[in-house]
Amino acid sequence: MISWYHSWIAAIRIARRDAWRAKGRSILVLAMIALPIVGVSAADLTMRSAELSTAQDLERRLGTADAEVSVSSLGVPILQSPDGDNYAPVGGYKAYEPPAEKMQPDIPQALPAGTQVVKDSIGHAKLRTTHGLLETALREVDTHSPLVKGRFTLDRGRLPEAAGEIIATNAFLKESGYFVGSRVSARGVDASYLIVGAYELPNSLKEVQVIAPPGTMLTPLDKALRAIDVPGVRAETKYLVTVGGDGFTWNMVKEANAKGALVISRAVILDKPADSEVPLYAQEPQDSFSDASTTMEMAVLATVVGLAMLEICLLAGPAFAVGARRSRRQLGLVGANGGDRRHIRAIVLSGGLVIGAAAAVVGTVIGIALTLALRPLLEEFLGLRWGGFDVRPLELLAIALLAVLTGLLAAIAPAVTASRQTVLASLTGRRGVRRANRVLPVIGLIAVAGGAAIALYGTVSETGTLVVAGGSAIAELGVVALTPVLVGMFGRIGRWMPLSPRLALRDAVRNRGRTAPAVAAVLAAVAGTVAVATYQNSQEVQARHEYTADLPSLHGMVSLSDNSAHKEVPAVREALSKEFSLSVRADVDRLVVGRPGCDTYSADTGCGRAEVIQPKEQRCPLFDSPHGPADFTPEQAKELRKDWRCARTEHYMENPVVVSDEKLLTALAVTDPGAVSALKSGKAVSFSKQNVKDDKVTIRLITDPDAADAARNTGAEKPGEDKVLPVYQAPDGVQAWGVELILPPSAARSAGLTTAAFGSFFALDGAPDSEQRQRLDGLLDQMGVDAAIKIEQGYQGDNSIEVLALTLFAGLVTIGAAGIATGLAQADAEADLKTLAAVGAPPRVRRTLSGFQCGVIALMGVILGSAAGILPAVGLRLATARETERFLDRAVSMGYEPAGTEVYVPIAVPWATLGGLLIVVPLGAALLAALVTRSSGALARRAAG
User: Fold this and answer.
1) Could you say which of 121, 274, 323, 468 has the lowest number of CB atoms within 10 Å?
2) Are 320 and 411 in contact (CB under 8 A)?
3) pTM for the complete prediction?
């Protein structure tokens, strides 16, 4: 035992000394091992620091209150989980029917006497900023109450004291361009508010919000907006309560649930009741509220960590082999002085242990320092203020041990190889002859076949993605095991090459012990890149195939997202014509029922909507029946999907009924002469034959949206006034891009229909450039309107940057691995270089040979990696195709999709990426190696052997 201990101490000292002598190689390996440790340790610190304790989370959610009580949106008695994150109506959602009159309990009156209550109301409105309009959360709460302490943090300024004063989040100030002391107002309202302070919400740093004293903003602003025919502010109210004693108990929570209220209680969360005491869990299985993806995420994480360790071992292994090769005389002296193979292995393994331990310390320290330095940026990125800097020594120790383990694993193969050298061969510098391992290729073939079979099985299993990933990893390991044999096969093409590449290839084949790990490292890096690139390129091809244009090419539409800004539409149209080169512009209006500023589907008082009413016999039974497709068998649903009444357009438009003239047909690229003639003669044009009967169409003016919705739920006819207009039905196949009915202005006036400006459709002479878009955006900002401009320019891919980044990453790893292998080749081929110099070879041969050695290794790795990377991509795409087929079959059986719909999940190889890897990467590696290699070397005596 003592002998074993002292031998390892001596080995570690020797390894430490060798590492210090070869600083460049040691720093390279240390950086490779430490870099992942930096990332993992920083990620661990970030994740743990961002996890709030229960007390911290409750302070930010409840302040110092005992509970937060709000009225459930269901309007019926509910059952809730103890933490208040999940709830359901009594009886479950399947039996739930929205009541005609929802429960509206008076929370303050329902609480026990002596309860402290603070009202917290939040609404939303658009406020004017220096750039235009900004959707903002408007909040009213007593900021001076002790119950709100901890819910927000005042950053600068002071709290609001009187009406007209507000405080704003830092996110609002950043987005709006305002500062403490600025005045802000809502669009169309004269009243303004003075920003007297800035604050932040610790749990939501990116929240755009302002706070005013109770009763000073929401109600006055709501009245002012409604007075100018603009939708008001709807407020959602919650109550912070303190009841004293034992706090808001679980029995009190259940009593509040019976009245339709939802409660987040401090006492209940800190001391949760047993699951048997939670009625929600008796009604709904608790598993339905759990995260079922955690196991798969952990499995995927373990796979990624394992592959990363494999990559580092493959990259660092040749570097340790370089050290062992350069130290072979020293290792021979150890053997000559009585050391056996165990001591040789211990010395080389100690090299991995020393560098792994150093990488663990350096990586952990840098990870901690980096996380501390970047803490403000990380908090802003996550949108969450940390509860503290949470350092968990055991987790960091485990991460550090991962670095040590990686170093040891990387040194195993060089240690075994070095221990098999005879003392005489080590002292004289002879290479010796070693038979090829015949077991490893067999294991590799079995792994490749087994991994491929597992990956293919994953394409039809329930956990397809995970199984495919695991099978692909096994197959890749099999290819790594086959690398020595595959490298030997590459050597057969050397006879047709010129001198320098032939020497490089033969040298790589002759010294497979150092070539194979480097090729395997390049293989692993390239395989991952090719797999991701192939998968993403296949998704890109699929997305391009499935892309549905919103409008004809180089046609567009401008509209205002807020109906209350209808008076600003003419100015927006003029700005559009001023900045863009238009061949046609068709102005469109929308039908209005009630106040023109109402949202399209608003149920507010004074608001309504106009709907096209289909004749009852022309309605699709799948959607007209009380329970929809559920009322039909799968076979009936399939047949009904073929019925012309159930045909659906691929396009959607918020206002399918528009008022315009024949210019709109040009803007929509509709060339039907009959439609043009109809609009010119003042006749409406329909593009949906389900709406037309006897050449007439019915438009119903609904003044009571709530009654109409209730009638729809019961299957009754919606109440309203009908307007019947003559109509021209466009032929089948005419594409109107979501427009169902065009009313000429004269027909709308004759029918007594009220309209309001909505926007414009247009056709461009050419695609607008960035400067034109910026000028138009600037004009719209000056107007203070929120206008949406949509221009159809075909499918626009968005993953080119990702593929480029992956290609660059693979290139860097490939060059690094090939560079390490080249250093090993130079150390191993020093005698050959001396022989070349002795026979009169030009000095440039050394540089050329070095470049080709690096290029050959890179090329072999890229070729094998490209082949290995196709398997996981193919497996994942087949799994996607299988899952898509299952989903489509279910949709067809339920009647949601027509029968005969084809599944298109292509497998598209990114030939451009492969070409870059196969040509650019080996060429770059060869040139870089040639540039950094000295072309002259001292002439010396070659060792015998």
Assistant:
1) 274
2) yes
3) 0.69
